[in-house]
Amino acid sequence: MNFQSAGKTLHLKKAPDDEAYWLSVRETMNPLYVNTQLVNTRRGPAPLVVREKVRELVDLSLSYELDEYEPFKEMKESGSSVEIRTLLADYFGAPADEIALTRNAMEGIATVLNGFVLKPGDEILATKFCYDSNLAILRQRALREEIAVKLVDLPFGPASEEEILTAFENAIGEKTKLISIPHVVARTGLVLPVKAISELARSRGIFTFVDGAHSAGHLDLRLEELGCDGYAACLHKWMYGPRGTGFLYIRKEQIPKVWPLFASWSDKPADSIEKFEEVGTVFKALPASIPEMISFNRKIGQAEKSARLRYLRDRWATRLRSHERIRLLTDIDAAPGSGFGGFVVEGMDAEDFANVLLEEFNIHVKAFEMEEDSSMKGIQLSPGLANTTEEIDSFVEATLAILARSHNSFSQAG
């Protein structure tokens, strides 16, 4: 069936507004929320099939000589296997010899940001919207190795591809060797034009590294088409896999330029992606459930997932953006768009708004303040597949009620 989104016609197996279907998906996930949870940036509820697989394997994972039994027989100590790497490679559109299994996005991020070869005086470009842990790694390396870290100045809110590219082009210097960017700005939903940035960087001999924690399983993407040199992601957020699983992608010709976090004890060559998987013993019940996770996502379809997440975002953002006291930080007409959205309530502190919403309406949203710039603050929503349109509509009605109630104080302040 066809569905219109951001001015484009999508050919989908299931429409994003087919509520009977998406309620059936929710049933397979059985989220254990204690309130209406509209923030899913930390983790998503793993579907029952994944949870049951992990439970099934817990005892075996903790037993003696576990490597003698399936499904562990073909797995390395790190939990990786040819099957798992091939499944991830096929899903995300990259050769299997460019995909390494990791325990989370942070492990892949730390591998590249610490391991990419630099020398004193070299420069790394990042942004204010990079995850704070990513920036902490860069600053530690800057202190340790006398390299420079520069933050590219990007708009807080909607921004065109041209604006973003111009900002990076103006920031690149002769010493720039690495660009580190988030694919999706979690607070505002801005999707950075990774392909265009990567093309610009490659033309200058610069390595482009992408934090894909919020795009893997969220956007309909193919790594080979993105064109970046490296990409790290976790599988417990938008792929709905078990916590403690992730992957690192590095283009084949760039692998020798990155040192692994742990020295390879099996003499893997410098150009082998598997050198990044030698991290010691892991709890194998977690990666052993990745096939069930992939099957869950394939059954729904990534294009369908992405369209549903954008639909949920548009359902609240379209109604609220016309309110005089709401300033959207998200361009809901941009393509590709994410399911994230952010906004500012004029005349009301973000923390106060979030607290009232939770205490009086039992709805959880995220009040945020950017670590790099305290003037960048607001409210963020990131509904997931387990959320319903009824929950979205309840949030809108609660927001309108709060705004109406505080109208007098806002008018007097103005």
TrEMBL record:
Gene3D superfamilies: Aspartate Aminotransferase, domain 1 (3.90.1150.10), Type I PLP-dependent aspartate aminotransferase-like (Major domain) (3.40.640.10). InterPro entries: Aminotrans_V_dom, PyrdxlP-dep_Trfase, PyrdxlP-dep_Trfase_major, PyrdxlP-dep_Trfase_small. The keyword Oxidoreductase does not apply. The keyword Lyase applies. One of its GO terms (molecular function) is lyase activity. It comes from the Bacteria. Keywords: Lyase, Pyridoxal phosphate. It holds the Pfam family Aminotran_5. This is Selenocysteine lyase/cysteine desulfurase. It comes from Mycoplana dimorpha.
